[in-house]
Specification:
single chain, alpha+beta
Protein backbone atom coordinates (compact mmCIF):
# COMPACT_ATOMS: atom_id res chain seq x y z
CA UNK A 1 0.00 0.00 0.00
CA UNK A 2 2.80 2.47 0.84
CA UNK A 3 4.36 1.89 -2.59
CA UNK A 4 1.08 2.78 -4.30
CA UNK A 5 0.93 6.11 -2.45
CA UNK A 6 4.45 7.08 -3.52
CA UNK A 7 3.43 6.77 -7.19
CA UNK A 8 0.91 9.61 -6.96
CA UNK A 9 2.30 12.61 -8.84
CA UNK A 10 0.57 15.21 -6.64
CA UNK A 11 -0.05 15.52 -2.92
CA UNK A 12 -3.57 15.19 -1.55
CA UNK A 13 -3.65 18.94 -0.84
CA UNK A 14 -2.70 19.72 -4.45
CA UNK A 15 -5.34 17.31 -5.75
CA UNK A 16 -8.02 18.96 -3.60
CA UNK A 17 -6.96 22.51 -4.54
CA UNK A 18 -6.34 21.49 -8.19
CA UNK A 19 -3.23 23.66 -8.15
CA UNK A 20 0.31 23.88 -6.86
CA UNK A 21 1.61 26.26 -4.18
CA UNK A 22 2.42 28.96 -6.74
CA UNK A 23 -1.14 28.86 -8.13
CA UNK A 24 -0.27 26.87 -11.27
CA UNK A 25 -3.14 24.60 -12.25
CA UNK A 26 -2.24 20.91 -12.18
CA UNK A 27 -3.56 20.54 -15.74
CA UNK A 28 -1.08 23.23 -16.92
CA UNK A 29 1.90 21.02 -16.01
CA UNK A 30 2.75 18.08 -18.31
CA UNK A 31 2.08 14.76 -16.57
CA UNK A 32 5.75 13.71 -16.62
CA UNK A 33 6.76 16.82 -14.59
CA UNK A 34 3.97 16.78 -11.98
CA UNK A 35 5.78 14.66 -9.38
CA UNK A 36 8.91 16.89 -9.53
CA UNK A 37 6.71 20.02 -9.31
CA UNK A 38 4.83 18.60 -6.33
CA UNK A 39 8.03 17.67 -4.48
CA UNK A 40 9.55 21.09 -5.26
CA UNK A 41 6.41 22.77 -3.88
CA UNK A 42 6.59 20.77 -0.65
CA UNK A 43 10.29 21.55 -0.22
CA UNK A 44 9.51 25.24 -0.85
CA UNK A 45 6.79 25.20 1.82
CA UNK A 46 9.04 23.38 4.28
CA UNK A 47 12.06 25.66 3.73
CA UNK A 48 9.85 28.77 4.03
CA UNK A 49 8.40 27.63 7.36
CA UNK A 50 10.12 28.99 10.47
CA UNK A 51 11.22 26.17 12.76
CA UNK A 52 8.97 26.05 15.83
CA UNK A 53 5.94 27.64 14.14
CA UNK A 54 4.04 24.32 13.93
CA UNK A 55 3.50 23.23 17.55
CA UNK A 56 3.04 19.52 16.88
CA UNK A 57 6.10 19.41 14.54
CA UNK A 58 8.60 21.59 16.40
CA UNK A 59 11.52 20.60 14.14
CA UNK A 60 9.64 21.22 10.85
CA UNK A 61 11.08 24.15 8.90
CA UNK A 62 14.30 26.12 9.09
CA UNK A 63 15.61 28.47 11.76
CA UNK A 64 15.86 32.19 11.03
CA UNK A 65 18.01 32.41 7.89
CA UNK A 66 19.52 35.71 9.04
CA UNK A 67 21.15 33.77 11.90
CA UNK A 68 22.68 31.35 9.39
CA UNK A 69 24.09 34.28 7.39
CA UNK A 70 25.45 35.99 10.47
CA UNK A 71 27.52 32.91 11.34
CA UNK A 72 28.87 32.36 7.80
CA UNK A 73 30.97 30.55 6.66
CA UNK A 74 30.89 28.25 9.70
CA UNK A 75 27.11 27.79 9.37
CA UNK A 76 27.27 26.48 5.78
CA UNK A 77 27.73 22.87 6.94
CA UNK A 78 24.94 23.38 9.51
CA UNK A 79 22.61 24.48 6.71
CA UNK A 80 23.50 21.41 4.63
CA UNK A 81 22.75 19.17 7.62
CA UNK A 82 19.43 20.92 8.31
CA UNK A 83 18.26 20.56 4.70
CA UNK A 84 19.28 16.89 4.63
CA UNK A 85 17.59 16.11 7.95
CA UNK A 86 14.35 17.92 7.07
CA UNK A 87 14.08 16.41 3.61
CA UNK A 88 14.83 12.90 4.82
CA UNK A 89 12.27 13.16 7.62
CA UNK A 90 9.40 15.12 6.03
CA UNK A 91 9.47 14.34 2.28
CA UNK A 92 8.50 10.65 2.22
CA UNK A 93 8.60 10.42 -1.59
CA UNK A 94 12.40 10.84 -1.54
CA UNK A 95 15.15 8.50 -0.39
CA UNK A 96 18.96 8.56 -0.54
CA UNK A 97 18.95 12.35 -0.27
CA UNK A 98 22.24 14.17 -0.85
CA UNK A 99 23.06 17.87 -0.50
CA UNK A 100 25.94 19.75 -2.05
CA UNK A 101 26.65 23.48 -1.96
CA UNK A 102 26.67 25.30 -5.30
CA UNK A 103 29.12 28.07 -6.12
CA UNK A 104 27.69 31.56 -5.71
CA UNK A 105 29.01 34.89 -6.87
CA UNK A 106 30.48 36.92 -3.98
CA UNK A 107 28.23 39.79 -5.13
CA UNK A 108 25.11 37.71 -4.52
CA UNK A 109 23.73 37.43 -1.01
CA UNK A 110 22.32 33.94 -1.25
CA UNK A 111 23.16 30.36 -0.44
CA UNK A 112 22.50 27.70 -3.08
CA UNK A 113 22.49 23.93 -2.82
CA UNK A 114 21.79 21.02 -5.11
CA UNK A 115 19.49 18.51 -3.46
CA UNK A 116 19.58 15.17 -5.27
CA UNK A 117 17.63 12.07 -4.34
CA UNK A 118 15.87 9.00 -5.58
CA UNK A 119 12.10 9.16 -5.83
CA UNK A 120 10.66 6.00 -4.34
CA UNK A 121 10.24 3.83 -7.39
CA UNK A 122 13.68 4.48 -8.86
CA UNK A 123 13.71 7.86 -10.61
CA UNK A 124 16.67 10.19 -9.78
CA UNK A 125 15.77 13.84 -9.30
CA UNK A 126 17.65 17.04 -8.44
CA UNK A 127 16.60 20.47 -7.24
CA UNK A 128 18.40 23.77 -6.86
CA UNK A 129 17.51 25.35 -3.55
CA UNK A 130 18.47 28.99 -2.96
CA UNK A 131 18.14 31.09 0.19
CA UNK A 132 18.58 34.86 0.09
CA UNK A 133 19.20 37.33 2.90
CA UNK A 134 15.81 38.90 2.15
CA UNK A 135 14.19 35.67 3.32
CA UNK A 136 13.20 34.41 -0.13
CA UNK A 137 13.61 30.71 -0.77
CA UNK A 138 13.44 29.17 -4.23
CA UNK A 139 13.27 25.48 -5.11
CA UNK A 140 13.66 24.62 -8.76
CA UNK A 141 13.71 21.11 -10.25
CA UNK A 142 16.99 20.66 -12.16
CA UNK A 143 16.55 17.29 -13.79
CA UNK A 144 15.09 13.88 -13.33
CA UNK A 145 16.21 10.62 -14.84
CA UNK A 146 15.32 6.97 -14.48
Amino acid sequence: MAGARSNLPESLFEKLADQYADGTAISAVPAEYRRAKSIADHLWRMFNTRQGSIPHLADYGLPDISEIYRRMPASMKEMETLILTLTSKYEPRLERVRIRPLPVSPLEFKLSFELSATVKGGERISFQTSFSTSGETHVQPLRSRS
